[in-house]
Amino acid sequence: MTDGKDQGPVRRPIVVTAILLVAAAVILVAFQSWLAGRPDVVDGGTRPESEQAVTPEPESLVAEPAAAVAVAAKPAPTAAPSGTVRVVVLPVRVESPDPTTAIAVDAVNRAMISTLRASADVDLVVLSPADLPGVVPSNAGALNEDTVVALAVVRRFAAGMVAEIREQSLPDSPFMAINLQASQANGSRFRRIDGLRKSGAPGTGTIALDNQDPQVLGVSFAESILQRAGQVAVSGTAPPEGRTRLLDASQSGQERLRALVELRDRGSLALDSEMLAAVIDLGTRSQSADTRRTAWQLIRRMAFDPALAPALSASLRSDPDAAVRREAALALADYRDDRSYQQALEYAIRNDSSTEVRIAAQMSMMDRSQHGAFARESLLDRGLTPAERLVPTLLNQASSMPRVWGTPGEAREQARAYAEIMAATDDVELKLKSLTELNVAATAAPGRLDPEIVNVLLASVDVEDEQIHRVSLELLRRAVANQEVRAVLEDVVESEPELADELQIPRVLEWRSPGEPAWLRI
C-alpha cells in the first residue's frame, strides 16, 4: 500500500486544473447570457443602427397620434334570472361620527335589504366596502353626485338598479337626514329623503328615536325600490343602431362621438369592450385634436374600466395638444391608485408646458371633495399667476362639482378676485372666463358692486371682444348711481341702441335718477 504523503504533489496540480476549467466554463456561460440580453446584439453581431431599440423620452410631445391600445374582451356579466330585476345595494354612507347615527342607519339598511331579498321580483346583490375596489374609482362620490358610480356598477353586474343609503346630519343636531338614492339602468334616477330624530344622548351607542322606527323606514325604502323595479327596462347592451355608428371606423370622428352622446342621453350605460376600444381609438389615433379631447371628456364619467388607463396615460405624456392632455389627466384620476398612472400624473405636474394640464394633474391626485377648497384657495392667492388662480375653479366646474360661495361676504371676496384676474391679464379668453365667473359671484353677493370691481368693468367696456363688452355693461347696470358708469351707459343708449334695449339700459337709467342721495352711490 502506498503512503498518502507521497501522492500529495501529484493530486494538487490536478485539483487546480479542474478548478480553472470550471471557472472558465462559468465565465463563458455568463458572457453568452450577457450577449443574449443585449438588445443591440443579434447572432453574435451588432444590430444595424436603424433596428436598435430606442427608449422614448417621456417629456417629448410627439406629433403623431399615439398607437392604438388593445382592449381585452371581457366576458359579459350573467344576466338576472328571467322575470327579475337585479338590484345592487352599495355600502351605506354615514357622515356623522356619532356611533348612534351609524347604528340607526345600519338598521335602516338591513331592514331594506331583508325586504328586497324576500321579493321574488328582485335578484339582489349586496356590496360591502371590501367589494368596491376595482368596481368603482376610489375617489368616487356618492351615487347621486357622481354618475360614474352607477355606470360602473351597471356594467359590472348587469344591474337594473343601483341603490345607496346616505346619512347627512347637521352639526350638533339630533336630526339626521336619511337619503335613499337610486339609479336605474335606463339612466333615470329617483331619490327619497326621510329623517330620524335621536332622543338619546350623542355617542351613547344606543338607538333612541322619537319619531320613527329604523326598521319601518328600511321597509318603506325597499317598497319604493320594488315599486320602480317593475318599471325598469334592463338592457345588457347598447341599442344596435347607436353601437353600430360608434364602431363604424368609416364614419368621421365627430359622427362616432355623436353616437356615443346619444347612447349616453338615452341611458345606455352598458359599454362593452368593443365600444370602449372604439372610444380609445378616437382618443388616441384621430387626426383631430378636438375629437381626441372630446373622446376623453365624454368617457371620463361614462365608464370605469382599467383598459382605459394605459391609453389615457399615453395621451397625457405624448399628445401634442394641451386640451387633450388636460382631459386625459382629469380622466386618469379614476386610476390614480395604480402607481404607474400616479407617476404619469406626477410627471405632468412637474413637466407639462401647459398650466391647465399641470393643475388638472394636480387635482386628479386629490379627492373630489378637496377640489372646491383648492379652487377657492388658489383664487384668493395673489402670489399666483392669473391662470393659476382661475384654472382650478374652471376645472372644478368641468368635473360637475358645485360652486361654493359661502357667506355673501365670501362671495364678494371671490368677485373681487375675479376682477383682479381680469385686470392682470391681457389674454382675452382668460379675461372673458374671469368676467363670467365675476358675473355669477356678483349675483351671489347682493348689494352694490365694490369700487375696485366697477373700475375693472369700466376698463373692460372698451375691450374689442363683443362678449366682454356685453357682460361688462350688464354688470355695470348695478352701479348706475356712479356718475362715470351713468355716462358710459348713456353713451351706449346713443351708440348701440339695440344692445341698450336688449339689456334694458334705458329703464335702468330712468329708475336711478342722478339726484338720488349720495349714500346710494358707489
Brief write-up:
By secondary structure, this protein is an alpha/beta fold. It is 52% helix and 8% strand.
Features:
alpha/beta; Rossmann fold; two-stranded antiparallel ribbon; disordered C terminus
Give the helices and strands, then pairings:
Elements: H1 8-37, E1 41-42, E2 45-46, E3 85-89, E4 93-94, H2 99-117, E5 122-126, H3 147-157, E6 161-169, E7 175-184, E8 189-197, H4 214-229, H5 240-247, H6 253-265, H7 273-285, H8 289-299, H9 308-318, H10 322-331, H11 339-351, H12 355-364, H13 371-380, H14 386-398, H15 408-424, H16 428-444, H17 451-460, H18 466-476, H19 483-495, H20 497-502, H21 505-511
Parallel strand pairs: 3-5, 3-6, 4-6
Antiparallel strand pairs: 1-2, 6-7, 7-8
Helix pairs in contact: 2-4, 5-6, 6-8, 7-8, 7-9, 8-10, 9-10, 9-11, 10-12, 11-12, 12-14, 13-14, 14-15, 15-16, 15-17, 16-18, 17-18
